[in-house]
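input
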Amino acid sequence: MNRALSALAVAALLVMLLEAAPSGSVMPAGALGVVFVAWSVVGYRWALSRGRAAAVAYLTVALALGFVVFNVAGAGVGSTLLLVVVVVQAVMLLPLGWAVVVAVLVPFVHVGMPMPDAVRQVVSTGLACAFAFVLAALHLREQQARSELADANRRLRELGEQAEELATMRERTRVARDIHDGLGHHLTVVGMQVQAARAVLSSDPARADGLLSQAEDQARRALVSVRESVAALREARPEQWLSAQLETLAAEGVSSGPSTSVEVRGRERRLDDEVQVALFRAAQEGLTNIRKHANAHAAVIRLTYRPDVVSLEVRDDGRGLDGTAGGFGLVGIRERVEDLGGSLSVESAPGSGVAVRVEMPG
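output
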């Protein structure tokens, strides 16, 4: 736009000189025209880099010079175009309301001419100023739209980066939960089986060997769980009922921990894969905590199917909690359950065991 305005001012100056040649006013009109063009180039760029006051000062001087050039060179296309340049610059420098004032002032340069000519010239110059004003306003709006679009694209890229970072964090959290829920459970069972094997190694080697075999099997399962979790693979879930998974889970630590039973209430039905995994992980975490901390003799996993809701409760008869129900495992289970629209609660009192309840839509 700046180059276009400079080129228009120079072209208007040349036209004005050609129009002034027959009247013999080429020298004074040319000198004033050169001053006006220089000011319209240098002064305009100066005003662009300053504030509102500089813009008003520049336009005031430009209008004064334009009126002087017009009076010296006479009414013509060239001298009128020089003033039209000022109108365009006013749109670029001032709020549109103030720029309208400049556009209205320019046609009054014809005041003093004979009435018929003055009316004709005021109307034609006013139309030229209005046309220039509209084009400049549209260009300014386009510039603003491009700037807003660039800002929107920048914000969109930032939001995309944040979304990618959030997705990465969510995936890391999911993998961490799987590692804790799967690997932690298997290692707990391995530790208890090894401990039980050491206790009977001298008195009952056959039983100790059986316990060590079970620990070895649990270690293999733990390795498989780690590989699946770290690789974050979403493989198809085995076609197995949740109750069957819970029966297998309950039997894993029966030789080295409290006896665990599974109760199913209601008619069992197929569940969404993520819901089934969340319930299984909750049972797994509950049994892991029982075997590590509860000092319990018996535990029960109770699975209840109700219309549109399935609940799971893991209860033991151990020493209960001392007022806290923390730990990464329960935190991870709670997050997993709540992400799927479910809820988790923990009930306990010293000496009365612990009950972990999960309710899920399903």
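quick obs: Residues 9 and 269 are 83 Å apart (CA to CA).
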